[in-house]
Specification:
8-stranded mixed sheet, 328 residues, Rossmann fold, binds magnesium ion, binds adenosine-5'-triphosphate, 12 helices, 4-stranded antiparallel sheet, alpha/beta
Length: 328
């Protein structure tokens, strides 16, 4: 089948907090192709988690509200899909992994019971077959002694093991799309590498498309085919991962890359991006990055730059793009 599996079109999500209206996600566009991994990066508060919650239609309402746009999944708009059907999609065709498995796994059921329940909601497997499949899944995510561990409660496992159970649960029903929001942030570096490895491996076997949300550019470089850079509720740059690293074009992306610690640069010379993100309730007339951008001029402060393609599959929301390499 051709076409994107998931396509987010001009999505807007707002939160009403006291007198303020937070524009947490303010008209973003991106798509995830079948069998590929799209990374979404950006600093804390830029709207990454709200985007993933919106795709699963889990934004709490109130205080949240879907203020516009469409989320097309395999041809239908998730924002107008009936609740009953959404519940079937979650854990079925759309799997989810979150940062902290302890909050997503139910502490009063064993790991096996949770996987079995998900399998039986989405298919008519017998209890016995579902248990066998749960063990198979735990083995697939490389949990040691799966036939024993299947009867463990989440608190009996380490953080890395719980994350493996979360992945098994997310993959139980062969999802077309896996949404992973900071799946490895709470884990130490070695376990993090193993989990990313596992996700890549599983993707090769199952062909699941992955939307990987992270604030870590290293994770993007290792795991993603394509990447979207978000800043203050908007997409500022979008490209194939290799192109983004070879030739970042948005001044924010360039700043992010410069801020990544490098072994060959002395610690006191690490770049940081000056200034801070504008308050989410302020509506600026121009580019959202203008107040921190070294290149910003009057036009940048008064007219919002549209996301436009500067080369094949490489789009930037910046009036100054393409920026010559010499300027970086
Ligand atoms: N339930 C909520 N009520 C009010 N505001 C919210 C709510 N959830 C998110 N927001 C606001 O939406 C904005 C985006 O938040 P989001 O959680 O998507 O950030 P993020 O990019 O995932 O950050 P992080 O890297 O810290 O996880 C923030 O300004 C946040 O305060
Ligand atoms: Mg988040």
């Amino acid at each position: 089948m051709t076409g994107s599996l998931l396509s987010v079109e001009d999505l807007r999500v707002q939160f009403k907090v006291g007198p303020h209206l937070y524009r947490a996600v303010d008209g973003i566009n991106f798509s995830v192709e079948r069998g590929r991994t799209l990374g979404v990066v950006g600093e804390s508060g830029c709207g990454k988690s709200v985007t993933s919650l919106a795709i699963m239609r889990l934004v709490p309402q109130p205080p949240g509200l879907y203020a516009g746009g469409r989320i097309m999944f395999d041809g239908s708009d998730l924002l107008s899909t009936p609740d009953r059907q959404m519940r079937k999609l979650r854990g079925g065709r759309i799997g989810m992994i979150f940062q902290e498995p302890m909050t997503s796994l139910n502490p009063v059921y064993t790991c096996g019971e949770q996987i079995v329940e998900s399998l039986r909601i989405h298919s008519n497997l017998s209890a016995q077959k579902a248990r066998a499949r749960a063990i198979e899944l735990l083995d697939l995510v490389r949990l040691p002694s799966p036939s024993k561990r299947v009867d463990d409660y989440p608190h009996q496992l380490s953080g890395g093991q719980r994350q493996r159970v979360m992945i098994a649960l997310a993959l139980a029903n062969d999802p077309d799309l896996l949404i992973a929001d900071e799946p490895t942030t709470a884990l130490d570096v070695t376990i993090q590498a193993q989990i990313l490895d596992l996700m890549r491996d599983l993707q090769e076997r199952t062909g699941t498309a992955i939307l990987l949300i992270t604030h870590d550019l290293g994770v993007v470089a290792e795991t993603c085919d394509d990447v979207v850079v978000m800043y203050a509720g908007g997409v500022v740059e979008q490209a194939r991962t290799a192109d983004l690293f070879a030739d970042p074009q948005h001044p924010y992306t360039i700043g992010l890359m410069a801020a990544v610690p490098r072994i060959d640069v002395e610690a006191d010379r690490l770049a940081t991006i000056e200034g801070s993100v504008p308050a989410p309730w302020t509506q600026l007339p121009g580019c959202r990055f203008a107040s921190r951008c070294p290149l910003a001029d009057e036009k940048c402060r008064s007219e919002p730059p549209p996301l436009h393609e500067i080369s094949k599959a490489h789009a930037v929301a910046c009036w100054k793009a393409p920026i010559e390499k010499v300027l970086k």
